[in-house]
Amino acid sequence: MEPNVYILILLIIIILVGSACCSGAEAAFLAVNSIRILELASKQKPKSSANQLLKLRKHLGRTLTVITITNNGFNIIGSLLLGVYGALIIKSSLGLTLFSIAFYVLVVLLGEVLPKALGTRFSLQIAMFSVPILRMLNTLMRPFLLLIEQLFPVITAENEISTDEAEIRQMAKIGSQKGFIEADEAEMILKVFQLNDLKAKDLMIPRVSAPSLDGSSNLDEISKLIISNNSPWWVVLGDKVDKIQGIAKRENLLTSLIKGENKKLISELCDPVDYIPEMIKVDKLLTRFDKDHKGVKVVVDEFGGFVGIIGSEAVLSVLAGWWKE
C-alpha cells in the first residue's frame, strides 16, 4: 500500500510542476517586453538565448500553441491517469470526491494562479529560462504544428516588434508617473515629437523682420548698425530683395572692424547661403543643422523667393520649451 501512495504523490507533483511551468511560461511570453528582448539580442551572439527568445516571440502563435498543448497534456491526461490510479487506492467514493476537489484546488492555485503571477512578475527571466525546452518541444511537435497551422492559418502570423508615436508618448507619460524616468526627460521626449508637427515657416524670422545688409556697402558704412544691433546673423542682399549674396556673421564683421578692415565690402565677408523650403519639417531641419554645422539657413517659398531666415536656436527653443505658438 505504501509504495502506491508514494506513486500517487509523485504523480500529483509531476502534474502540478508541469502545469505550473507551462502556465508560468505562457504568462511570461505574453508579458515580456519585446523591446527589452531586442536590446539584449543586439548585444549578444546570434545563437544566444536572447536571440532564440526573439525568434520564439516573433512566432508567438506557434509558441503559445506548443505551451497550450503541453499544459493540457499535464492537466487533462495527467488528471485522468491520476483519477484512475487514485481510485485504486482510495476505495471510498466520498474520499475520492474529496481527493478530486483537493487536487482541483491545488491545480488552480499552484498550477495556474501562482505561476502566472510569477511569470508576469519575472517575465524576462522565465521566458529566457524556457527557451531551450520550448525549442525542443517545438521540434518534437513540428508535424502536428504544421497540421494545425494548415487548419488555422492565423497561428502562423508573425508578431513583429513595432511601436508608434502615440505608444511612445504614453510610455513616457507612464514612466514619468511611476518614477522610472525624470519628469523633464518625459517632457523632452514629447517635445521631440512636436518637431515633426512644425515646419520651417512656423519658426522662421519673416523677411520683413530679418536683419539684412546691402552687399555693396563697406564695413565703415554699417559699423554703427552692427555694433548697436545684437543680431548674430545678417542676410547680405544684392540689388534685388530675392538676390541673396550670403550670410554674414556678426562676430566676423566685428572681428574685421577691430582689424581695421573698414573698407572691405560686406559681400566679401559673408558665407555661402544654404536654402531650405518653408514646408520642411523641423525634425529634418534639425538633421540638416547637425550635418553642415551652419547656424542659420535662408527659407524660400515654392517659387524660390526669399521669405525668411531660421537659426538653429529656433529649433532648440522648441526642445527647451521656450517657443510659444
Largest sheet: 4 strands, mixed
Strand content is 5-15%
Helix content: 55-70%
Quickly give the structural class: alpha/beta
Tell me the total number of β-strands.
7
- What would the principal axes of the Cα set say about the shape? rod-shaped
N/C terminus separation: 85 Å
Please report the number of helical segments: 14
Average pLDDT, all residues = 82
Spatial sequence of strands, sheet with the most strands: 1-7-6-5
Task: Please compute the radius of gyration using only Cα atoms.
Answer: 35 Å
- List SSEs in N-to-C order: HHHHHHHHHHEEHEEHEHEEH
Are there runs of 5+ residues with pLDDT below 50, and where? Answer: none
